């Protein structure tokens, strides 16, 4: 499903949905971070997605990473809470969602597993050296999460 991201844009459509979601900053022992290349908006991002009924929020994090990359992870902590109402996502089915996301830290359970795209949400999944992250096409709200995960200092809610 196609998606358009608006950030602090007066032309953004009216919000009609808020869905709890997660992103997951997975780091391997070499210090690389697991990123996906998204089909819906063409950006690189942390793996993640919407919370399903009957799951704990950390179960959502583990499931989403596995679905999008094939990597099994263990959640180790929280990067931050991201609830900026100025970040609006419009989907082609008419849903207009306000950002509401928890970003977790995680490690791979088996580092011999190679990431793979799922062909539905992701067209690539790769371990990326942090020095290469600035060169990638990443939405500004996702870049902020990645920076917080890489600098290791963010654990309180981000409410702006």
Structure characterization notes:
- The chain has 160 residues and is α+β, with helices and mostly antiparallel strands.
- The protein has 2 helices and 11 strands.
- The strands form 3 sheets. Strands 1-8-9-2 form a 4-stranded mixed β-sheet, with no helix packed on it. The chain has a 4-stranded mixed β-sheet with strand order 6-3-10-7.
- Strand 8 and strand 9 form a beta hairpin.
- The longest helix is centred in the middle third of the chain and has 13 residues.
- The mean pLDDT is 91.
What is the SS-derived class?
A: alpha+beta
Low-confidence stretches: none
The major beta sheet can be summarized as: 4 strands, mixed
Strand tally, please?
11
Residue share in helix: 10-25%
Q: Report the β-strand fraction as a percent range.
A: 35-45%
Q: Count of DSSP helices?
A: 2
Cα(first) to Cα(last) distance is 27 Å
User: How much is the average pLDDT?
Assistant: 91
Return the string of H and E elements: EEEEEEHEEEEEH
> Numbering strands along the chain, what is their spatial order in the largest sheet?
1-8-9-2
Instruction: Tell the overall outline.
Output: globular
Rg over CA atoms, rounded to whole Å, is 15 Å
What can be said about this structure in brief?
The chain has 160 residues and is α+β, with helices and mostly antiparallel strands. It is built from 2 helices and 11 strands; from the N terminus they run ββββββαβββββα. The longest helix has 13 residues, at 57-69.
From the structure above, extract its key features.
160 residues, alpha+beta, four-stranded mixed beta sheet
């Amino acid at each position: 499903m196609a998606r358009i991201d608006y950030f602090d844009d007066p032309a953004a459509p009216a919000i009609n949905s808020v869905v709890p979601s997660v992103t997951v900053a997975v780091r391997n022992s070499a210090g690389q971070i697991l990123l996906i290349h998204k089909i819906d908006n063409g950006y690189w991002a942390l793996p993640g997605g919407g919370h399903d009924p009957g799951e704990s929020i950390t179960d959502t994090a583990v499931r989403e990473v596995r679905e999008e990359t094939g990597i099994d992870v263990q959640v180790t902590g929280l990067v931050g809470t991201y609830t900026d109402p100025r970040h609006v996502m419009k989907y082609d089915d008419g849903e207009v969602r306000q950002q509401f996301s928890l970003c977790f830290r995680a490690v791979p359970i088996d580092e011999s597993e190679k990431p793979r795209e799922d062909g539905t949400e992701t067209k690539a999944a790769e371990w990326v050296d942090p020095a290469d992250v600035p060169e990638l096409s990443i939405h500004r709200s996702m870049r902020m999460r990645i920076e917080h995960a890489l600098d290791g200092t963010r654990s309180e809610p981000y409410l702006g």
